Amino acid sequence: MRLLRGWMRRAAGLLPNARREQELADELNAHLAMHIDDNLRRGMSVEDARRDAVLTLGGIEPTKQLYRERRTVPFLENLMQDVRFAVRQLRKNPGFTATAVFMLALGMSASVAIFVFVDAALIKPLPYRDPARLIVVYETAQPCLQCPLSYLDFLDWKKLNTGFQSMDAFRYANITVSVPEGAESAESFRVTSGFFRTLGVAPLLGRDFYDGEDSLAAPHTVMLSYSAWKQRYGGKPDVLGKTVTLDGDPRIIIGVLAPEFHFASTAAEFWTPFYPGGGCNSRRNCRAAYVIGRLKDGVSIETALANVKLIAGQLEKQYPDSNRGYGAMLLTLSKSMVGDIRPVLFLLLAGAGLLLLIASVNVASLMLVRSESRKREIAVRSALGASRARIAAQFAAEGLVLAAAGTALGLAMASWATHILASLIPAEKMIWMPFLKGIGLNVRVLGFSGAIALVASVLFSLTPSLHFSLSKTGGGIAEGTRGSSGRTWRRLGSKLVVVELSTAVVLLVGAGLLGKSLYALLHVELGLRPDHVVTIEMAAPQSYAASNEKAIALEGRIINRMKNLPGVKSVAISDLLPGLYWSGDVWVVVAGKPAPHVHNSVGERTASSGYFTTLGAKLARGRYFTEAEDVSKPPIAIVNESFAKKYFPGEDPIGKQVAYERTGPQVPMQIVGVVEDVRERQLDLPSYPVLYVPFVDYVGTYFYILARTSGDATPLLAALPSAIHQIDPNIATKDAAILTGLINDSQSAYMHRSSAWLAGGFAALALLLSVVGLYGVVAYSVSQRTREIGIRMALGAQRGSVYGLILKEAGWLTAAGIGIGLACSVGAAMSMRGLLFGVRSWDLETLAGVALVLGISAFFASYIPARRAASVNPVDTLHTE
Amino acid sequence: MSDKADVLQGTLALMVLKTLEAMGSLHGYGIARRIEQTSGDLLSLNYGTLYPALLKLEQEGAISSEWGVSENNRKAKFYKLTRAGRKLLEKETRNWEQTAAILARFLAV
Questions:
Q1: For the packed helices A46-57 and A18-41, what is the interaxial angle rounded to 10 degrees?
Q2: Which residues of chain A neighbour B69 with C-beta distances below 8 Å?
Q3: Are A510 and A825 spatial neighbours (Cβ–Cβ below 8 Å)?
Q4: Could you give the angle at the alpha carbon of A641 between the alpha carbons of A640 and A647, nearest 5°?
Q5: Taking the domains of chain A in order of start, what are their residue ranges?
Q6: Residue A695 class from Cβ within 10 Å (0-12 exposed, 13-18 middle, 19+ buried)?
Q7: Which residue of A has its CA nearest to B79?
Q8: Contact B29 A35 (CB under 8 A)
Q9: Which of B46, B49, B60 sits opposite A2 (nearest CB)?
Q10: Which chain A residues touch B91 with a CB distance below 8 Å?
């Protein structure tokens, strides 16, 4: 305690304090005066009295110094002195300081900004109780690897499993809300009654669902998200007990969720019970229930998996029609939520890290140049008695100051960049990344920045002293005046440049490959012409689903109404849009072929008569659906070429029959046409067999309208919704859009685009920094060799050979950098294979392009100093000798 | 001069504390003189070394200081023991006596 107090006082003594210094002087003066008085009294002469007093004291200045050392911590005191000195030195050199600080800040801000996203997606715990124990449960089969469960399977798994405390189902649903103006489309989740307890979240207001509230007999209830409560009910607490009509069904509001709660989508406003029954829930092959479970204490995910696999196996035997080939799969909730952006984030973090490496190396080599040019100063100082450690400490202080300034600026830039990046994510994408809610600087991000700052400080503090200890200070005074080249520096500095150049190559190749992937993706053969196609998503009230006739009549009215809009050439209705989503797969059997060993899984689309003409697809054989299709006629279907190739190799599929795989009597559909492949799934998935069935067979109330226009499609964006509302104001619609835009902004295109742009940005900065680094090395080398070049020229060397001398040196560095970089980038590209589309990781074009770009830039960076070298006037150089 | 003993490491603080206990409030010069006198002029004390020792004791809270006026009207800084200082003195005295006793036994062998 006593010692601690002493140390604290000493630390406080670090602060410069003129008063304390004055007090010490006063005290010593008083001491001397009293001693002199005594001495005089003893009969000494005035002079002797003073001399004796000072001698006995041990000298005034030494005493003061002794006292000061006790007053503060000498090491820290020195450090503070060094830091103050470093700041002065750096201020005197604003060009160097600004460049170094800015470069470091640039590298740092890129890394930190990306880390903010990595943290939000992968590190920050989800806002549930003990989120690591939450598991998403899937059924898995080819090609649906992460399939939701059928409702009946869910009930069996829930009952039979031994690994989970609780298991609940949830399902996304687009619903209509009755508002005074009519109907509005809104997003909702259906959840089984224990869902919120499984997550371990409590509502802000009211209660969550009690057990059994998800049975049809219970009163129909709903919970609101925080934002729905705020926006629809003004955040008033009396909302509990009120009624809201969803899909025509009045429901009592029983609770409001907390503001920090999020799950899967931030846009979901209504949380309703997941009721059994209904078409899909009573069929074991209709897989639409996502299932989340909380592991029992002490049960590992492996144990739980083994258990559910057993259950899946039992169900396979019990219900082969619906469950054959379906196994089980478990993923932690966080993995399942973050999904496919995980590799993209790692890729970007790696890219930002490489940029930081280049920036740091650049700063380090700048510091080397600086210490080289300060050789003379160092030599003078050590001649005056400064110890090696003291000089090294001085440089270290400079490194510390630079790193600190760079970190501060870097953090500011990172916080800005984070906001920019977040605002670049379109709102409809942001909805599905709820974990990005409220991102920004936090403890983990500051820790990460702190770690970078620490490494940077160590690097920058040690580099100059490394050089300093390599060279002999003794010769410094002489060398400084003569200006012979600093050989140590040139060797070390050029190695650093090679590191920079090769890192830049890796980044450029990565960005090049991603850019090429994006291009390939956006130019993939769609099999359709999406420009001039306007689409709108709509949901008709449930009353239309009551009978086939009503639904068909509605479809007919919509199509007729749309056709008469100005500029519309053709209109179609479909259950999904092409190029965007994974379509629902179905199993089919082909008449006349043996039953498949595994299921024949094909995509299914419901299309009205104008579907193919509106999309601009091409008919290969047979015919399209016509308006004359009718449920009373025998069922027909159209297949695509992939389907034809796979199931009718070498045959004409027209007139052949396919049927949905099911137990009991099969209903064969006759194939009437073959269309060329249309990309029905997302762009980065290859074409696959698709079965098209006429829209008249579909009795859903939720579908898409597609309209092809002859001229500009923009006016139709506003005309479509109003035309639909004229038919029935209770039909809910979502924003109309042009198909080209939807496809270009689709999830897969967006992923590729954002990673390509960000990686491209990093690569451009890397190119700039590394070329500047090369320029620095060559320019410095030229400035050091001015004398040598002057003498060579005085002895008859031609300007051409001087160019050659410098360019050869730069050329070797560039060649080494590019060579090493290309080798590394092939390796790096292999690891990002999964993110590439339509381009191989050793794409020669990209590799050659990068080598060329870097080679040309490097040539210009070294040409400028080479020209300066060649214009050296030998007479001037010899004069200065 | 040469037969005077140097101040043993670590004993200066004890001497200062003891002096202040005996004298109450005293300035640096006074403490130095008093130590010399008490030792019967057998100690060679570099007065300058006293000040860091005083500072150390003050930092540790064993003594406190304030400005006052000396017997012959000079402004000087006066030191006195604090309560913590008295405790420290007791403890250090015990320690020293023990050390001295142990050493004495060795020397008596």
A1: 130
A2: none
A3: yes
A4: 95
A5: 2-72, 74-127+342-482, 148-325, 496-520+743-881, 541-730
A6: buried
A7: A27
A8: yes
A9: B60
A10: none
What does the buried/exposed string (b/e) look like for A6-20 if buried means 16 or more CB atoms within 10 Å of the residue's CB? beebbeebeeeeeee
Cβ pair B80, B63 in contact under 8 A: yes
The DSSP annotation for A550-594 comes to HHHHHHHHHHHHHHTSTTEEEEEEESS-TTTSPPPEEEEEETTSP
How many Cβ atoms sit within 10 Å of the Cβ of residue A87? 15
ipTM of the complex: 0.88
Q: Which of A329, A297, A299 is nearest to A311 (CA)?
A: A329
* Residues in chain A, pLDDT under 70: 1-3, 12-16, 73-74, 143, 466-490, 581-584, 595-598, 663-664, 697-700, 880-881
Sheet with B75-81, edge to edge strand ranges: B26-27, B75-81, B63-69
* Cβ distance of A34 and B29 shorter than 8 Å: yes
Angle at A786 between CA A783 and CA A790, to 5 degrees: 165
- Min Cα–Cα distance to chain A from B98, Å: 22
Closest Cβ–Cβ partner in A6, A35, A66 for B52: A66
**What's the pLDDT band for B2 if we cut at 50, 70, 90?**
very low
Chain A environment of B88 (Cβ under 8 Å): 2
pLDDT in tens, A277-324: 777 788 887 888 899 999 999 999 999 999 999 999 999 999 987 888
CB–CB contact A34 B72 (8 Å): yes
Domain count within chain B: 1
Q: Which residues of A touch B52 (CB under 8 A)?
A: 66-67, 69-70
Question: Could you tell me the CATH number of the domain that includes residue B42?
Answer: 1.10.10.10
Nearest to A66 among B48, B59, B61 (CB): B48
Tell if the CB–CB gap between A70 and B52 is shorter than 8 Å.
yes
Could you list the residue range(s) of the whole structural domain that residue B62 is in? 5-108
* β-pair partners for A637: A671
**Contacts with B71 (C-beta within 8 Å, 6 or more apart), sequence order:** none
Q: How far apart (Å, rounded) are the C-alpha atoms in residues A526 and A252?
A: 47
Shortest CA gap B109–chain A (Å): 37
Is-contact A521 A838, C-beta < 8 A?
A: yes
Residue B81 is which amino acid? L
Phi/psi for A689 (5° steps) reads -60, 130
Contact between A383 and A793 (Cβ < 8 Å)? no
Q: Which one of B48, B60, B74 has the shortest CB-CB distance to A34?
A: B74
Asked whether A78 and A393 are in contact (CB, 8 A), the reply is yes
Q: To the nearest whole angstrom, how far is the Cα of A433 from the nearest Cα of chain B? A: 57
Number of H helices, E strands in chain B: 4, 5
* Mutation site for A-interface testing, chosen from B16, B26, B29 by largest number of A Cβ within 10 Å: B29
Residue in A with minimal Cα distance to B74: A30
